[in-house]
Amino acid sequence: MTVAVDSNQDVLAPDASPPGRKPRLSRQQLWIWLMLTPTVVLYGAYTVYPIIASYWYAFLEWNGFEAEKTFVGLQNFRDVFADPLFWNSFKITVLFMLAVVPFKVLLTLLLALALNSPKLPFSTFFRTAYFLPVVTTAAIVGVVMQFVFDPASGPVNLTLQRLGLVEAGVNFLGDSSYALWTAAAVYVWKWFGITMIYWLAALQTIPDEVYEAARIDGAGAWHLLRSITMPLIKPFLIIITLLSFESALKVFDLMLTMTNGGPYYATEVVEIYIYRWAFAATVPELGHASAAAVVFGLFVCAVGLFQLFGVRAVQRARSA
């Protein structure tokens, strides 16, 4: 018996759904979504919702305890912009960022160049030693540094006195002339290892054959660095610098435990300013704190846009 089949008739694939009907999720896809559900719920509850709520609270007058909330419109933003302490904290944040990023990027580059040399003994040990502060909690580092820089019995001051560099102990964290720069030095030391790893990864993308060919042509160490290494890692320089700028804006835990924004607001970054209005004040003002958080969040987004443009510039440079 012969069955005629129309050659113009569409034949559905085994997994294809009929027209007009939504495809069903496979059992594997259902398990994937089931495993992702806790992460999605927790991320939404503790990240997405607070961000959305902060934008709404910025238009309210509310202390966080009473049920009554008063809509005040843009008044909180006017108060934030009129507060000189907010602009002081903004200035401190930008100054801190501009102070730590160049040292962090350049010093880690020099160290990565040394650790990437095959002639350096115990390079693995040194890499691990420099990376250890990264895995240490920033809040613990801040507490420990209070003892390290103690003007009476801290090891830093005792060493300076024994060397004859100072006659009396220097209050590095209690003097407004030294507090911000001391915090910047601690921050660079704390996050030194992660930037060093970025540079090591960038250096290892350069093929050894390029160096061997240059050495055969008589190139020395300085010529290799100037003509081969630096041009080839230039795209990574943009990315690492932008990542360092963005990470320098997140110093709340370290600064709070080490100086608490003092002395006399000399180290009060915007994050501590927001914390002070929202939680540390006698009568919290969540509307004012949320307005400051929204302004600071927009500034962070602007830094992120610069990072995006930098990544695209790197991609265009590498494709060229």
Automatic annotation (TrEMBL):
Topological category with respect to the lipid bilayer: Multi-pass membrane protein
UniProt cross-references to Pfam families, sorted A to Z: BPD_transp_1 (PF00528)
Polar residues compositional bias, start-end: 1-10
Keywords: Cell membrane, Membrane, Transmembrane, Transmembrane helix, Transport
Transmembrane segments: 30-52, 92-116, 128-149, 178-203, 224-245, 289-311
Chain residue ranges for the region called Disordered: 1-23
PROSITE patterns, per database record: ABC_TM1
Domain annotation ABC transmembrane type-1: ranges: 90-307
Statement: the UniProt record of this protein carries the keyword Repeat: no
Chief subcellular location: membrane
UniProt-listed InterPro entries: MetI-like (IPR000515), MetI-like_sf (IPR035906), UgpAE/MalFG_permease (IPR050809)
Gene3D superfamilies, per database record: MetI-like
Subcellular location: Cell membrane
Family under the similarity heading: Belongs to the binding-protein-dependent transport system permease family.
Protein's name according to its UniProt entry: Carbohydrate ABC transporter permease
